[in-house]
Amino acid sequence: MQQFDRYGAEIRVDNNQLSPRDKGLPARAAGLTVEQFLATRPTLSEFWTPLLVLSDDALAHNLGVMADWTARHGFSLMPHGKTTMAPDLWRRQIDTGSFGITLATAGQVRVARDFGFESIMLANALTDARALRFVAAQLADPSFSFSCWADSVDTVEVMERALDGVEIARPINVCVELGADGGRTGARTLADARGVAERIRRSSVLRLAGVAGYEGCLAHDRNEQGLAAVRDYLEAMLELHTSLADDYDDQEVILTAGGSAYFDLVDEVFGPIDNPVPNTRYVLRSGAYLTHDDGFYRGISPLDASRLGDADPAHVLRPAMRGLARVLSRPEPQLALLDAGKRDFPYDEGLPIPQTSAIDLGAAATPLTGASVSAMNDQHSFLRLAPAQELAIGSVVTLGLSHPCTAFDKWRCIPVVQNWESDLVVGLVRTYF
């Protein structure tokens, strides 16, 4: 059955066959399509450990929270799709008001186009000649909107050489990327950034489309020094954008910032400005809000309950992902080894957080107090237990996770339960890393 989005475009549903290559799935799923398998009303208790699980209710809640926040603060949202690389989740973000999808590599752009997405920002420079020609060909579709970034005159000239002699329906939108000392990419001074803008403006195959940047690499917490560095950087972005007002054409331009940690500061700096540059769209690219987490983003997100205090629960984000792992060994009184490691769960922004234990998947769980994960190997986690903690071999441990950006990439097919109290699997999310 054909499905269509709110614009009348056909939605391409990935419904290919499941196989034993999809780790964690029940053996009986092999050979079935996603649709056929879900029609059998599978339960989580059928799945194998280790396992990454999503909550449909929590995902829907987070989608609503962020859609409401951006609407109230006057921002368009182009969430970073590289967080999940899951077109099914991208579609849900679009359907709840997102303006488009942000991606990080040309290969990711190609995946999005193959699934029919029409509004894409590449939050990076595009210097691969083959990828540039692919984008140029895609621009023959009048419904396709695309932009990328450049942080040097050399980048602009590489793009021009790659497009020399290529038939292109319209110029490629390019935003000037401003960086900061100690940051990642981006022109390091306003003067350099203005030079990049001038070079783009003189190009016949590129269009000066705005100013872009990423503030998340300038701080890693919410101490005063880090927040000051982020504010200073955002103010420099705004200064650059305002200084380019006479260089822009009369079409829409964008000013874009905002990871998932400091978008409140983006609003603080950009929000009070009363349209300093005509036709400006203010774009946030936050992506991790969709699943939130129990670690890094719980500690830094502006919309976490710990930061908002007595705020209405409807306006705070909820963790929508968890890990499940089984006890393999109890070699010491206060040590258990789990069947999940670095190839299953994220560890770069904090180790998994033990939450509950149960005799098996789907069984009643009890809090696992006083426990912590002290280390991870490729396929093992070291679970340190409180004295006299009972935890039988074969038991299942629920783990809170930190950093969704390095959780999804370890899984091809992720089960979705209705909520954390339910054993019924209502979806399977495919990823394309």
Task: Using the coordinates shown, work out and report the CATH topology of the largest domain.
Answer: TIM Barrel
Low-confidence regions: none
- The domain tally reads 2
Relevant CATH superfamily of the largest domain: Alanine racemase
CATH second-level architecture of the largest domain: Alpha-Beta Barrel
Class from helix and strand fractions: alpha/beta
Number of helices: 11
Record field, number of beta strands: 20
Helix content: 25-40%
Pfam families: Ala_racemase_N, D-ser_dehydrat
Protein name: D-serine deaminase, pyridoxal phosphate-dependent
InterPro entries: Ala_racemase_N, D-amino_acid_metab_enzyme, D-ser_dehydrat-like_dom, D-ser_dehydrat-like_sf, PLP-binding_barrel
Family: Belongs to the DSD1 family.
List the helices and strands and how they pair.
Layout: E1 3-4, E2 10-11, H1 34-39, E3 51-55, H2 56-73, E4 76-77, H3 87-95, E5 101-103, H4 106-114, E6 119-125, H5 129-138, E7 145-150, H6 153-163, E8 172-177, H7 190-201, E9 206-212, H8 224-243, E10 253-257, H9 263-270, E11 280-284, H10 296-300, H11 305-308, E12 321-332, E13 335-338, E14 353-358, E15 366-367, E16 372-376, E17 381-384, E18 396-400, E19 413-417, E20 425-430
Parallel strand pairs: 3-19, 4-11, 5-6, 6-7, 7-8, 8-9, 9-10, 10-11
Antiparallel strand pairs: 1-2, 3-12, 12-13, 12-18, 13-17, 14-15, 14-18, 16-17, 19-20
Helix pairs in contact: 5-6, 8-9
Protein name: D-serine deaminase, pyridoxal phosphate-dependent
Organism: Cryobacterium flavum
GO molecular function: lyase activity
